[in-house]
Task: structure prediction
Amino acid sequence: MTVLAPSPSAKSRPKSNLPCLLCLHGGGTSAQIFAIQVGRLQRALAKHFRFVFVDGPFECPAGPGVLPFFEGMGPYRRWINEDGCDEDKVRPLLKKKMADDGGNFVGVLGFSQGARLALGLLHEKQENRAEAFNEFGFGVFICGTYPPLGLSSSLFPITPTAQFESQYWDTKHESILNIPTVHVMGSRDPFLHKSRLLSQCSDPASTTIMEFAMGHAFPAAPADTQRVANKVIALYQNHHRHEVDVPRAEQLEKEVGQVVITAVPIQA
Result:
């Protein structure tokens, strides 16, 4: 596999005025690794959004599939510890990252375990909870696992142990998410059933499900990447009513064909 690194000048470039997406990595990786793995989608959206990456607070072993591709890129991190999602560590960490960045955050993007947390943050906004992440207007969940992670212990009727062990959350809970979302899934993902369960936490009227021929990874075929990018732009357009130019994925597909490239899986 070829690892696609961010542009060498990315760190030296001044911040743009583009709207921002808060990017939450999967378990057993890091913000640095996530920036590489989401690189194709980031490049497809480069004219529309700025991606802001943040490290989870808890160190852990590298997730399955992370090594040897990302050998020496530790410490590897996750969003939960053995006792669940620690609100006192996760909330201030995210808030500080967003405040220090100073950008206009309009949405949240999460992969695997990061998608669980991203859905929990959107629930906080919907429930009008104190310290909620009210900046977010939509969510993008890629190969999400299950159940959602709530920073507030009263947000979801599950115990910290159940959170850590990914036991099932009652999707008939009254707090079904109605904020616009897109759930991207892999038909060959061993966690596909958990991605589908996570999607059931969203109101069908406000969510889009996209399934591609891939494992626990990111869409790699250019046409598939562009389809996801188009949907993210549409979510932003619908929520903020901005005029944006959406490329024609169908035409791109004709030009590049249906080549599927294997990407690196990450721990759930």
Observations:
- The beta strands are 20-24, 50-54, 58-60, 76-78, 105-111, 138-142, 181-186, 207-212.
